[in-house]
Amino acid sequence: MRNILVLLVILSLFSCTGINANDQELNIQGTWQLLSATTIENGKSKTTDYSGKLKMIKILNHSHFAFLRHSLDVKDSTNFDAGGGTFVLDKDDYTEHLEYYKDKNWEGKTFKFKLTIHNDTLIQKGVEEVEAAGVDRVIIEKYIKVK
Q1: Letter string b/e over residues 58-88, b meaning 16 or more CB atoms within 10 A of that residue's CB
Q2: What is the distance between the alpha carbons of residues 115 and 61, in angstroms, rounded to a whole number?
Q3: CA 104, CA 100: separation in Å to the nearest integer?
Q4: pTM (2 d.p.)
Q5: What is the pLDDT of residues 69-114, one digit of tens each?
Q6: Separation between Cα atoms, residue 16 and residue 33, nearest integer Å
């Protein structure tokens, strides 16, 4: 009888917290700095290191994302990129809807990714396909949380 009471107390504690291990979403809110980006296109892989002359961040809140990329070279004012929109997160399924971007072929497109988080590192993997821009590739981006 005592074991049943202990079990009931434990179950009631979990029901009060609303936590179900199978339903937990990743905590992605905040600012993330891109460390590296790999693109795989036509069987060829290319990795860009973002610890040198390029810097990019992604900012996520409860419903929107924005990204900003620029060159750290003070003489380079042309290497700037930015965009943003809304997203939906369902466990590790992350779907972006790009609303703002300099290339109008990308605007209004939806991109689906899988996310993993290990400590302060976020890895985003998925497909970018924009027929009008001639883009069909897998991307793998590795971010670190900005503190």
Answers
A1: bebeeeebebebbeeeeeeeeeeeebbbebe
A2: 16
A3: 8
A4: 0.81
A5: 999 999 998 889 999 999 999 999 999 999 999 999 999 999 999 9
A6: 36
